[in-house]
Specification:
Elements lengths: L1 H14 L12 H23 L4 H24 L9 H14 L9
Helix pairs in contact: 1-3, 2-3
């Protein structure tokens, strides 16, 4: 589900010019700049909540986080930064199962 959505979002981002042509390669600096954009979207959620901009704005900014993160994931796979056989869908299911077995507050009592 997320793997497929990521692929579609990445194709859109590519078609809009947000990724270089893969034949030129993608530098670590480019990947880090994409990650910084995810961080900026998180800050926009923070500001929307802090300034009480309303539910619609908060959810819109959360959607931007997910879109940017999935685009980055698919772009990293597409450009050889991640193993193409690793599935985000499977990793999330695996991590969720691990988290279900962890103690309350993951053992942090403070």
């Amino acid at each position: 589900m997320l793997d497929e959505l990521a692929y579609d979002l990445h194709k859109t981002a590519q078609s809009k010019g947000f990724w270089p042509n893969p034949e030129y390669g993608v530098s670590i600096e480019f990947i880090l700049s994409k990650l910084a954009l995810v961080h900026s979207e998180v800050s926009e959620v923070l500001e929307a909540v802090r300034k009480q901009k309303g539910d619609q704005q908060v959810v819109e900014e959360m959607a931007d986080i997910i879109i940017r993160l999935l685009d980055l994931y698919a772009g990293m796979k597409h450009n050889g930064w991640l193993d193409p056989d690793i599935s985000l869908d499977l990793e999330i299911a695996s991590k969720a199962a691990v988290n279900q077995q962890r103690p309350k507050m993951h053992g942090n009592l403070a």
